[in-house]
Amino acid sequence: MERTTLDLQRQVATATPDEPPVNRTGEASALASLPRVGIIRNARSHRNKGAECDYLNDPNVISAAPQTKPELAVALARFAREKIGLLIIDGGDGTIRDVLTRAAPVFRDKWPPIIVLPMGKTNALAYNLGLPHNWSLNDALNTALRGRAVVRRPMIIERLDTPQRDRVGFLLGAGVFNAAIEAGQTAHRAGAFESLAVGITSAFGVMQAMVGFGSSPWRSSFSMRLRTGEALEEIPHYAHGTPDSRYLVAISTLTHFPFGLRPFPKVLEENKLNHIVYDAPLRRAAAMFPPLMLGYDPAFLGKIGIHRGATSQMMLEFGDSFILDGETYPGGNYRVRLGPELHFIAP
Hints:
By secondary structure, this protein is of the alpha+beta class. It is built from nine helices and 20 strands.
């Protein structure tokens, strides 16, 4: 992982009060040793439900627990006016997506360092950053005081055929990816989360793709066209399926995920638009899915209609919906490009 050292020590020297406040347990608040902190807490996140948090009453904190996206935008605008020096996102991948999307026009090219508290049903970014499952606010603050951070660049998804807010996220998928996410939601409802849910979903999807029949979404192609790079050349489409359809596309600036999954070639780096594309639901291609997800990268993939690569931008034409970090968006014409370099506090 690409690590950086943040200049927080100078800010600490000027921001630390003479008498640090104490929380309701009587312990000195670590938050008092940092620049002004802004916290967005999603009280509906899986691990936050019913949980209390002392930090919301800390005098060095501006906190918000917005219930709607407009409320989130208002809270982030306040953070910018108050010139926070640290942004904390208390929630899962969906919360991170929403915060980054609403924060992009607020912070522009002057983002504060970010702490992620992985409290959601899925926490792929937290896993990628190397955060332990029990990563606490105190752990994160102590790490922030040492100025340790990891650089990650999210994707910016811009709609071209109609006015719409740019979206910011880390994992985009379409085609059978949608069915996989729905299977994951079913696993969540059954009580499986994190790596267990990923494992169940992956196994179920491969089984359906290999033995399914008829109009099952696990055996269908989907309307889409995909172009990459500065020249916006179409990703090759081999003799399987039709030129204006694909079976699956997944795009991410991350390279490894929970459950040890590494869907992109090992030679790729973080902070690129890494992608994997399946042309058609061939059973021999579906059989390759498990080893590919674990990093296997044989030379014959193109011959069975599987393509992997990395680029700086992509043009996507979707006839059906797609999913960004767990949320569904309508089909249309989109440009995907690299977002700003963000500094995430990580051990």
